[in-house]
Amino acid sequence: MSLKSAAVLTVSDLYLQGKQEQSFNLILEDLNGLDYEVEKYVCVCENKENLAQEIQLLSQTTDIIIVIGLLETGCIYKGVALALSQELGENDKLINIIDRLKGSHKKEEVSLPLFARLLTSENASFPVIEVSRIYVLNVNCFEELYFNILKSYLVQYKRKPTFTKAIYIQLNGNTKQNVLKHKGCSTEITFSEDNSRLVCTATSNNFSDIVEFEQKLRNSPNIPYLGSCDSSCENPLDYLNTKENVQQTLQYIEESLTTYGTENIFLSFNGGKDCTVLLHLFVNLLKLKFPHYDQKIFCLYVRSENAFPEQDVFIRECGVFYNLEVLTIVGSIKDALHQVLEDRPNFKACLMGTRRTDPYSSNLSVFQMTDVNWPQIMRVSPILDWHYSEIWDYLLYYKVPYCKLYDLGYTSLGNSLNTIKNPCLKYTQCSTSKENYLPAYRMLNEVKERSGRNIQHIQK
Fold first, then answer.
1. Is the predicted pLDDT of residue 15 greater than 60, yes or no?
2. pLDDT level of residue 239 (50, 70, 90 thresholds)
3. Using an 8 Å Cβ cutoff, are 158 and 3 in contact?
4. How many CB atoms within 10 Å of residue 444?
């Protein structure tokens, strides 16, 4: 999906005078030019409680929050940390930058929310501080930071997703006409020929529509379907320099492929946000490192008896789009793993979307064998140290399709009998006084990610 709305906060209007005021107006104009709905311009006093409160209010209606102010006092960092319920910690990279610029630093000007990261550019003397799509700009150079660093991120977040599949069909006289009968209104199609094959390139901004189109071609008795590949241009490997956590994860995945071989690895996939990120990274790394690999990726889906229907639908869609071989087993993870290894004894490693905040995962290693009383296989957790906000940054930035439940207020998926929408995302609509839920990516307090999980029983 593409982000739509932005808000700008200035901390104390004393600093926006003369040229700074002109720069500020220029930024507002540019946001509108990027087709963002600028929900609000707010000027708050230099007080961490007031700033935190304003950020929390804006998060209910706004996708992107830009904070402009003086950073030397540390008040802005404290306010952002308070809004996110995060601790502050001295950032080594920021220390190096400020020491290089000024010769020394004060503790408060280098103490950032723990999950913050620095966005830098060769064309900017100072970084943009980012956490959970809240961007902090130094008032002394905010125009430079906006146009040389932040704008490229805003352009990418705003861009509509584009999904493209190259579908291969045996060429005969009526193939094109038969294909066009299944074309939906949101799907564009072009044809080319390749060694007696017809290549149907289908493009759509809607993930479900392009999956449905391919599924119809697969099932049609009049179309000799041969196969397909994802030819979407969105690829995280193009952005290694800006995404350190992505780069580290790709190194772990590549190490797995090198150590165990492509044919001896499978993924644990239940349609949740974490394993969706992992699947997308794995697929794209295979494209780069093994461009001629044409086998289906094997995925194990350990399904609950009371799984959400939306979860099942999304997994089926991923199976079609990414060319997966999905084995669905209803039962325990241990029994499912035993069955898989019995049928496929060549498997040596299982890639998992486990993160350190998951239950019983705080002491895991990225590479760790299963316990002695379990079927023996190497568990590989490449996104083990990702934060909740990094998961959503990835999904939104790279336009990765995800389960629709997350847009309804669910933040962590169990099953339909033990999972409810996250209470932390509940809000009341001013116009109707009705209760509603924010999408999962809007949640600021990462500690509350699993609120709504493990409910004793939900009346159906």
1. no
2. very low
3. yes
4. 22
**What phi and psi values does residue 246 have, to the nearest 5 degrees?**
-65, -45
Strand order in the sheet with 324-330: 324-330, 297-303, 265-268, 349-351, 378-380, 367-369
Question: Which CATH number, 3.30.2350.10, 3.40.50.10800, 3.40.980.10, 3.30.460.80, labels domain 5-158?
Answer: 3.40.980.10
Which of residues 44 and 110 earns the better pLDDT score?
110
For domain 163-230, the CATH superfamily is ACT-like. Chain A, domain 2 (3.30.70.1150)
Sequence letter at residue 455: I
- What CATH number should be reported for the domain whose range is 243-460? 3.40.50.620
Report whether 140 contacts 125 (CB < 8 A). no
Q: List the domain boundaries for the chain.
A: 5-158, 163-230, 243-460
Of 411, 405, 403, nearest in space to 442 by CA: 411
E strands, 214-358, are 225-230, 265-268, 297-303, 324-330, 349-351
Provide, rounded to the nearest whole percent, the portion of the chain with pLDDT above 90. Answer: 72
Using a 10 angstrom Cβ sphere, with 0-12 exposed, 13-18 middle and 19 or more buried, the burial of residue 181 is: exposed
pTM value?
0.93
Q: Are 443 and 411 contacting, i.e. CB atoms less than 8 angstroms apart?
A: yes
**CA-CA distance, 343 to 335, in Å (whole number)?**
12
399/174 Cα distance (integer angstroms): 35
Provide the 10 A C-beta neighbour count for residue 73.
Answer: 15
- Identity of residue 254: E
Answer yes or no: is pLDDT of 19 > 70: no
Instruction: Tell me the per-residue pLDDT of 40-70, one tens digit each, with 9 for 90 and over.
Output: 788 888 899 999 999 999 998 899 999 999 9
Asked if 349 contacts 377 with a C-beta cutoff of 8 angstroms, the reply is yes
